[in-house]
């Protein structure tokens, strides 16, 4: 008998209703920003974030310093509250932030698994080779990749879409280095703009949706401002694109069996998440995890019909140890293992990003528990006004990752209207396009097109992107009569 499930449930059985309820009780937070603990926590956060900014130079994954910083900050938070005769406040607040992270983690895990499954089934490769095989001019490819990026990023997320379309730009650009540079900028701007009008387009929009500040259908109000955000710089940059025909790769690659079915399952999962959230008032993560379960079941049936490998009696693919044991029990020593395994797909998730998100949520949560976000909220939204404050917050996301910025705004909770929450979502989601290091899409494409798409090549067109950013904000304010 396998005792592991019972052991995992044992801590839950020990938890009394009183202990479980304590995590939901409201706590009175203190202003500890002027204490030694507060100053030290802020310094630790800044040092951790400096390591994040210098990730490429240090060759240190960004999740590592922020996870350590999160642990140290919460130890300081606990010590500060203990000294103020509030020994339980830090624990209650920490559990609240861990619960927030758990919902987002599971949601992102499910969404990333679907995207990785589509990649494993060669859906994106088939789309890319179809585009490359067509006799389009460079300017046509420029507009096609930009348009597809803008339309796909609300569904497949901005980072995955940017990597896909960046591969298309590189494949057709070949020796046209100027086209590759401008084409990558176009893809980054389109990915961030497209991701701003959907909860599935970016982590920041997902956070706003799960917090309940904006309903799913209300994100559509950002479609026109997001389109303006991308279209203005795209039109300006298109003037330097040649009309030449590239000599791209002509080999056609088909998607694997099950690609279309997985796309339909992904769409059904998104719809289910929306319905359970809007109609039943349940967290949308329930819909995503249910869809993930269905995907895993489908993956099992898919593996039954996928080709298998034999190589001199040795297992060459997934789950070698388990497969070998089962083969021996059957008296089969050929080392046969199926080529497809959905758990190997799950292993390909961006774990560094997911762990980085953990560190960010807990770091910002710790600073909020010390009182820093209350002061920042008063500084921004109390003295500047919401329109200017949200616009500046968006510009700040070009220098600092947009995830901690949006999480900070959500924790400030400045009591904004729907229009202002939409403005904050638009600004934070698209402000990172101003610099190549301002968004995950830009950083990823710099790695994909090393030496061609660079920080300086992007900076050359930042003025055009700023025009689109400003125009999108004015468009949103005009649409809402503010």
Automatic annotation (TrEMBL):
GO terms for molecular function: antiporter activity. Pfam families: CitMHS. It comes from the Bacteria. Keywords: Antiport, Ion transport, Membrane, Signal, Sodium, Sodium transport, Transmembrane, Transmembrane helix, Transport. It is found in: Membrane. Residues 1-21 form the signal peptide. The chain crosses the membrane at residues 37-54, 66-83, 98-118, 125-144, 179-200, 220-241, 262-280, 286-304, 354-376, 388-410, 422-449, 461-479. Coiled coil: none annotated. InterPro entries: Cit_transptr-like_dom, NhaD-like. Belongs to the NhaD Na(+)/H(+) (TC 2.A.62) antiporter family. This is Sodium/proton antiporter, NhaD family.
């Amino acid at each position: 008998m396998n005792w592991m499930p019972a052991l995992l449930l044992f801590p839950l059985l020990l938890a009394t209703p009183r202990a479980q309820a304590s995590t939901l009780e409201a706590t009175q937070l203190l202003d500890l920003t002027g204490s030694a603990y507060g100053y030290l926590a802020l310094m630790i956060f800044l040092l951790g974030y400096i390591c994040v900014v210098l990730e490429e130079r240090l060759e240190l994954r960004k999740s590592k310093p922020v996870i350590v910083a999160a642990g140290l900050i919460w130890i300081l938070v606990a010590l500060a509250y203990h000294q103020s005769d509030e020994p339980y406040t830090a624990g209650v607040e920490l559990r609240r932030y861990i619960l927030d992270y758990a919902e987002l983690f599971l949601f992102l895990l499910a969404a990333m698994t679907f995207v990785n499954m589509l990649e494993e089934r060669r859906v994106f490769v088939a789309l890319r080779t179809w585009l490359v095989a067509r006799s389009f001019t460079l300017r046509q490819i420029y507009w096609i990749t930009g348009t597809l990026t803008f339309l796909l990023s609300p569904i497949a997320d901005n980072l995955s879409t940017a990597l896909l379309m960046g591969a298309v730009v590189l494949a057709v650009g070949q020796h046209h280095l100027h086209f590759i540079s401008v084409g990558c900028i176009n893809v980054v701007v389109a990915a961030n703009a497209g991701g701003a009008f959907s909860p599935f387009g970016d982590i920041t929009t997902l956070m706003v949706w799960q917090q309940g500040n904006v309903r799913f259908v209300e994100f559509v109000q950002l479609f026109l401002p997001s389109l303006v955000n991308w279209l203005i710089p795209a039109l300006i940059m298109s003037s330097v694109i040649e009309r030449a025909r590239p000599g791209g790769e002509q080999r056609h690659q088909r998607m694997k069996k099950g690609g279309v079915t997985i796309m339909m399952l992904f769409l059904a999962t998104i719809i289910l998440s929306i319905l359970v959230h809007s109609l039943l008032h349940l967290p949308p993560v329930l819909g995503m995890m249910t869809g993930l379960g269905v995907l895993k079941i489908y993956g099992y049936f898919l593996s039954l019909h996928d080709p298998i490998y034999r190589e001199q009696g040795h297992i060459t693919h997934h789950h070698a140890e388990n497969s070998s044991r089962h083969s021996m029990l059957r008296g089969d020593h050929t080392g046969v293992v199926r080529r497809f395994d959905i758990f190997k797909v799950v292993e390909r998730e961006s774990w560094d990003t997911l762990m980085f998100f953990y560190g960010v949520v807990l770091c910002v949560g710790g600073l909020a528990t010390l009182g820093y976000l209350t002061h920042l909220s008063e500084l921004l939204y109390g003295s500047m006004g919401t329109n200017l404050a949200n616009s500046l917050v968006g510009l700040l996301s070009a220098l600092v990752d947009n995830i901690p910025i949006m999480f900070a705004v959500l924790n400030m909770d400045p009591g904004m209207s729907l229009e202002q929450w939409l403005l904050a979502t638009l600004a934070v989601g698209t402000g990172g396009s101003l610099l190549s290091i301002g968004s995950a899409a830009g950083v990823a494409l710099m790695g994909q097109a090393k030496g061609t798409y660079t920080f300086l090549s992007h900076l050359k067109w930042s003025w055009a992107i700023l025009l689109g950013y400003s125009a999108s904000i004015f468009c949103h304010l005009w649409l809402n009569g503010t």
